[in-house]
Structures are given as C-alpha cells and as structure tokens.
Design brief:
Blueprint (H helix, E strand, L loop, with lengths): L30 H11 L3 H5 L6 H34 L11 H40 L7 E9 L6 E9 L3
Antiparallel strand pairs: 1-2
Helix pairs in contact: 1-4, 3-4
C-alpha cells in the first residue's frame, strides 16, 4: 500500500433505482402547513391547492353572510341609538314614534349583540377554512386501499327469523 499514489481518487459509481415510487406516492410533509398558510393568506386558496374547488364558494358564502349581517346590524344599531338619543334630547319626531324608550334600548342591545355574533361567525368561517385546508392536505396523503373495509352485516336467524345486525371488518394481507 505504501507504493501507491495516495493523491489519486478512484471514483466508484452507484446506481439508485426508485422502486415503484410514482410522483403520487411521494409523501410531502410540508403540504398540510403549505395549504394552511395559503388559506390564511387568501381564504379558499388552500382548498384550491388541495384541488377541492367545491368548498371555496361555501367558505366565501359563510364569510360573506357574516359580513353582510355585521353591516346590517350596525346600521340598525345606529338607527336605534340615534332615535333613542333624540328622545333623550326631547324630540319625538323620529321613525319610531309608536315605540317606547325601553323598547328602543332593547332593540339597540339586540342589534349590538347580533353584530358581535356576526363578527364571530365570520372569524369562525375564516378559521374553519384554515383547519379544513390543513386536514384535507393531511388526508390527501393518507393511503386508502381496498385491503381494509368496514361493512354493515345483516343476517337472518334461521331459528326465530329475526335479523341479526353487525359490522364486518375485513383486513386483507398481501
């Protein structure tokens, strides 16, 4: 060994063969976090990333309904508040002439509460959008095969002709 040149390097080649791995089978651990990030930036973008396009209108309808009712309840709250303030100032020529002061206060509180609920509904749809994108990306990578099935099982008892209900779990090993 002392007679050989130690500065020369032998290159040995190796061949790596991917064993039946297709691009669909490759696990991407960042896909769920990426989908959640996309949904946080723009609601519905995570669903588009997961190719669940039918969920996007549901998300925007829920958030849009919350925003619509927020605006509507804010307008009602302001109308009731302004009428009540005018009543306290001594004016009686408002749009609620036949409504008592106590009822105006109650209507104002109800509109304010409904406005707050509308904000909560919009925020919940936004958060549900993010969670749905994350969970859907996790489940998209889950291996679903026909080797594991859970089926209802109904058998007729031959002695008393009563049905017997149950579940059948089938697990096939290959």
């Amino acid at each position: 060994m002392a007679q050989t040149d130690s500065l020369t390097v032998k290159k040995e080649g190796s061949l790596v063969v991917l064993d039946s791995i297709t691009p669909k089978d490759v696990y991407d651990p960042l896909a769920p976090s990426r989908a959640a990030f996309y949904s946080a930036v723009l609601p519905g973008l995570g669903q588009a990333y997961n190719k669940k396009y039918w969920k996007i209108p549901i998300i925007y309808a829920g958030m849009g309904a919350g925003v619509y009712f927020y605006i509507q309840n804010t307008e009602d709250y302001n109308r009731f508040r302004d009428a009540y303030k005018r009543r306290l100032a001594g004016f009686t020529d408002d749009e609620f002439e036949n409504v008592s002061d106590a009822r105006l206060r109650d209507a104002q509180k109800t509109a304010g509460r409904n406005r707050n609920v509308s904000i909560v509904v919009s925020v919940l749809f936004y958060m549900l959008n993010i969670v749905d994108a994350n969970v859907d990306a996790h489940l998209r990578q889950y291996n679903i095969s026909e080797d594991l099935t859970l089926q209802p099982n109904i058998q007729l008892n031959s002695i008393d002709a009563q049905p017997n209900y149950g579940l059948s779990l089938t697990f096939n090993l290959k």
